[in-house]
Amino acid sequence: MRLASPEEPTMLLLNPVARRGPAEFASLRSKLALRLNLVGAAMPASAADLAREVEGALGQGVRRFVVAGGDGTLSRVAAHLQGTGAALGVLPWGTGNTFAHGVGLPGRLPELLDVLCRGCVHRYDVGIAESHGERRAFLNSLTLGVSQRLATLLTPGIKRRFGWLAWPFAIERALRTTPQVQVRLRYDDGRNDAFATLQLIVANGRALAGPLRATPSASGQDGRLEVFSLGAASPLACLRSAAQTALGRHIHDPRAHYRACTRVEVTSEPPVALDLDGDVWGRTPVTCRVLPAALHVLVPGAQQEQRTGVATPVRMRERLR
Questions:
Q1: Residue 191's closest CA among 259, 132, 123, 248?
Q2: Is the peptide bond before 285 cis (omega within 30 degrees of 0)?
Q3: Is 287 exposed, middle or buried, given 0-12, 13-18 or 19+ CB atoms closer than 10 A?
Q4: Structure pTM?
Q5: Cβ atoms 88, 296 nearer than 8 A
Q6: Over the stretch 90-119, which tens digit does the pLDDT of each residue have?
């Protein structure tokens, strides 16, 4: 852990399709420039543009990247920052903001700006998914089944227009229209597992969706992935399993097929598309592994935690003991 310095060269990256997007770009840039050594700001229009901005800024010595957007944007930036020592600062301007919940960020902009300027830099794990020769990083989870269908239904335009109000209708339709999938898993210890499900989750971080935790002990700093399923052949079974997950009981439910690992190979019949931190990406088969402590992230320090009532993940785990 280290303390952030306002003098570090900083780059602002804003997702132009985020709910709080271009209209607030100029204002946000001005606020950051007053408190940080802001050397650049951009609204990349595509994933390729985002990659060029990040790589170019790294080459010019930028050591802090403030990213205003959702989980998909954060994971794309993390793919370039992992292993570099440059810090990721998060402005949660997406719909779910799962990663922000997982690392204990405050919800109001003044407190968030304090974290970006004077927060602590902690190291977090990065999940890596490889499918058909392509590779993507993920911070929260890789899933298949209902969540992938949900990601397809919740287009950026719908999320921007309706926010969380779009979710109940999309969830009902996703449950109704997602087919059962037969999955086979091969773990790093050589064990195999096979079962039918509507939803498979490979979780890297502490949170699954918004504040919903993967497991009671889940952490983005433990060097492991957590693999489990929700439901079997029916939407009702999937909802029951989701309720068990919300209560943290699924790790003891044999129907969840829960296992912690550092690497897992996933195949399915039929092959299906994947949801990676809210983005539809790739198809099975896919191999997932974890890079421990590969990403530096700005989180609240002790004084900020006391002032805002927000706890960092490490302190949360201490309080739960």
A1: 259
A2: yes
A3: middle
A4: 0.83
A5: yes
A6: 999 887 899 999 999 998 999 999 999 989
